[in-house]
Q: What sequence folds into this?
């Protein structure tokens, strides 16, 4: 039985800013069901310290690397079958946010070292170290080049790219946070432009690189999606693979979800209407069964296709629809969206912020889920919305393309709607079609709901693929 240690900047149930946390909160548990051992290590942010005062103190380590010389206490906890470890260093992590600080390079250089320094002192003995996104990208190179003790040579490294846009690119001076010789800068392994890139190091030094859908794995080899890493990625050859994400189908289950006004099942969806009415009521929308309610739950960034939504907002609202948006992020987008309630009273509402409970109620209460992303490595939101019978309308990119099968009115197959080119008119064209199906092809819409809700969005298949990958190493 192999043991896999996930190293990540966030993970449920402890801390979340996006889909990465969903994956870290559910894939390790799914692997234990496949007979593997799994553990997770995270930075111990302020929110974790405040919310989980009972975590157990495991050991104290000293991290010494370049200009860094600090102690860290390692904490632990267990969630179902998965051990969680936490690296506590309050100078770096006792802050309100997770990332986006001027010293992020130093903070995550520290974290990567601390993870490796912790290994000899904890119970969990990994065979594979599975790092994720830029925050943890330096682990493989450090493990292979800085940690000379023989015990570090036995680890295999998997590195997963959840979003190639965020690369952890820092000024060259960040080299001071490592004991790596300049050789690794001069030979180009970690050099990117005139600085260094944590993600590039992760790609080059991991034994296997994965990303979160097959389509994205192909897209990132092109200059359109490659974010200037396409050549480095191409060099990985067969060691770059796409494995699509699943979701935690126990937590995300309309039949048992405690956040919902009423629960419903695939075989009896009548209460989905009650969820819709209660959501409309809660948000001050006109309460009505017979109007198409469109939902959006997202980080407000350009990645998520917010250009298209802002450009076409008045066209969208010219249709017979209601709209609810839950999200936070970019200031400009937030300010634009703040106007919608006064422009379209009782028809459109924007909840600015992060709200877990409301997100569940939107996934359940809406009819259509809009996700016209510019690019989407995988996407968790469309998986959740399908599970809740809320039909996704997506752009055919990355994981959206791999997980949403477009409705075919002739044979009745499909689980959603999709369009190909990132153009407002294309989105509107397919939205008009979805609206038509909703109002005039009720049996078709009911079929869509049933097919979406019964689609397997669990981790079962993908956990097996990860297992095969680990075992091939
Ligand atoms: P990304 O990771 O790129 O943000 P994903 O679709 O993979 O996109 O995952 C987003 C996750 O974050 C989903 O679980 C979604 O429900 C959640 N989420 C995004 N924005 C919010 C918000 N404002 N409030 C609550 N949950 C949110
Ligand atoms: C990233 C991507 C998203 C993906 C998530 C989890 O945040 O933007 O598409 O679902 O990671 O892998």
A:
């Amino acid at each position: 039985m192999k043991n896999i240690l996930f190293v990540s900047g966030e993970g449920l149930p402890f801390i979340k800013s996006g889909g990465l946390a969903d994956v870290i909160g559910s894939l390790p548990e799914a692997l234990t069901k496949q007979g593997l051992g799994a553990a997770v290590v995270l930075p111990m942010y302020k929110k974790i310290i405040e919310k989980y005062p009972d975590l157990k103190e495991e050991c104290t380590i000293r991290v010494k690397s370049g200009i860094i010389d600090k102690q860290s206490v390692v904490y632990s906890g267990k969630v179902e079958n998965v051990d969680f470890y936490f690296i506590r260093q309050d100078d770096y992590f006792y802050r309100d946010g997770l990332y986006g600080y001027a010293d992020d390079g130093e903070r995550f250089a520290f974290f990567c070292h601390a993870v490796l320094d912790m290994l000899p002192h904890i119970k969990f003995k990994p065979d594979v170290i599975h790092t994720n996104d830029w925050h943890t990208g330096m682990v493989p190179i450090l493990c292979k080049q800085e940690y000379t003790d023989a015990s570090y040579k036995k680890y295999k490294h998997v590195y997963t790219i959840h979003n190639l846009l965020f690369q952890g690119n820092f000024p060259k001076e960040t080299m001071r946070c490592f004991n790596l010789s300049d050789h690794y800068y001069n030979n180009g392994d970690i050099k990117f432009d005139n600085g260094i890139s944590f993600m590039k190091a992760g790609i080059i030094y991991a034994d296997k690189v994965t990303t979160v859908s097959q389509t994205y794995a192909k897209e990132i080899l092109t200059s359109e999606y490659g974010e200037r890493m396409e050549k480095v990625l191409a060099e990985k050859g067969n060691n770059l693979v796409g494995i699509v994400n699943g979701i935690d189908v126990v937590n995300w289950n309309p039949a048992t979800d405690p956040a919902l006004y009423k629960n419903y099942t695939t075989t009896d969806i009548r209460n989905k209407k009650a969820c819709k009415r209660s959501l409309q009521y809660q948000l001050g929308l006109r309460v009505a069964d017979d109007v198409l309610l469109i939902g959006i739950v997202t980080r407000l960034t350009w990645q998520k296709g917010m250009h298209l939504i802002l450009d076409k907002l008045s066209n969208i609202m010219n249709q017979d629809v209601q709209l609810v948006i839950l999200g936070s992020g970019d200031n400009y987008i937030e300010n634009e969206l703040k106007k919608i309630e006064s422009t379209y009273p009782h028809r459109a509402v924007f909840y600015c912020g992060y709200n877990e409970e409301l997100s569940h109620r939107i996934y359940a209460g809406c009819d259509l889920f809009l996700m016209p992303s510019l690019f989407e490595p995988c996407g968790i939101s469309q998986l959740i919305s399908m599970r809740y019978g809320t039909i996704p309308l997506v752009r055919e990119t990355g994981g959206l393309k791999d997980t949403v099968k477009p409705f075919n009115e002739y044979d009745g197959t499909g689980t959603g709607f999709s369009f190909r080119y990132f153009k407002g008119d294309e989105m509107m064209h397919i939205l008009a079609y979805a609206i038509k199906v909703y109002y005039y092809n009720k049996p078709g819409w009911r079929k869509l709901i049933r097919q979406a809700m019964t689609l397997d969005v669990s981790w079962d298949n993908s956990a097996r693929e990860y297992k095969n990958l680990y075992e091939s190493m």
